[in-house]
Design a protein that fits this description.
By secondary structure, the chain is an alpha/beta fold. The protein is built from five helices and nine strands; from the N terminus they run βββαββαααβαβββ. The structure holds adenosine-5'-triphosphate. Adenosine-5'-triphosphate (ATP) binds next to helix 1.
């Protein structure tokens, strides 16, 4: 199968410190990939690079035609990136926040689909409540509700710490949703310190002790 993204020789140097170097990996349909490494290893830096934000990575990305917009560039309309902070406005209600996030992420939505998504993350009772009064887990759930909207063109999810602050039931539901998306042909790259048990989970390991600690398996 042709890879959507083939990364070759990626290097990131920040403040004179090499986070990772000569990193190779690929991302294909149905892949479930976890970026692993200690705090500060460069996991978010790498994910932000794949998401097209942040400048701290150099190297070569080969993009397949299925994933390219033009000229070998990633078609950003095919990527949904959820950063490690919930990005919630406390001035808006739960529903208004999701509407805003859906719009920002380029996802199609109407009120019925927003309601359905909020039901999936158990926030339907809080629709019109100000986000100011929500718990950390509930704020996280607003952002995750995007995963239940119609994905239309989206092929790749980039999820930075999506399990943070979720209760056990929330974790189980998110694991199921990730599994479902990959089975439907999408790919997921995630960063998590949660022990995600999945038979198809691949790993991109970042280490900053020495270059020998950097490896990618199963690709
Ligand atoms: N905007 C920035 N400017 C300069 N250095 C930065 C910036 N953002 C992060 N760094 C540095 O880059 C390194 C890697 O950060 P990054 O957030 O990618 O690590 P991480 O592996 O995701 O860590 P964690 O597990 O703690 O979230 C850190 O040493 C951090 O201090």
């Amino acid at each position: 199968m042709t890879s959507w993204i083939q990364a070759n020789n990626l290097t990131s140097i920040r403040q004179n410190r090499t986070l990772f170097a000569q990193l190779d990996f690929s991302i294909s349909a149905k892949d479930l990939i976890q970026i692993k490494g200690v705090n500060g290893a460069g996991k978010s830096t790498l994910m932000r690079y794949l998401a097209g934000v942040g400048q701290a990575v150099e190297g070569d990305l080969k993009i397949s035609e299925a994933f390219a917009l033009y000229d070998g560039q990633i078609d950003r309309a095919k990527v949904l990136y959820l950063g490690h902070l919930p990005a919630i406005s406390t001035r808006l209600t739960v529903l208004e926040n999701l509407r805003f996030l859906a719009q920002k992420s380029g996802l199609p939505y109407d009120d019925a689909s927003l309601f359905a998504a909020l039901k999936h993350v158990d926030l339907i009772k809080f629709l019109d409540q100000s986000a100011l009064a929500l718990s950390a887990g509930q704020k996280r759930r607003i952002g995750l509700a995007r995963l239940y909207l119609e994905q239309r063109n989206i092929k790749l999810w980039l999820l930075d710490e999506p399990f943070t602050a979720l209760d056990l039931q929330g974790v189980a539901k998110l694991e199921l949703r990730i599994d479902e998306f990959t089975k439907q042909g999408g790919a997921v790259v995630l960063i998590t310190h949660h022990q995600f048990e999945h038979p198809d989970l691949k790993t991109i390991m970042l280490g900053h002790q020495s270059q020998e600690t950097m490896y990618v398996d199963d690709i």
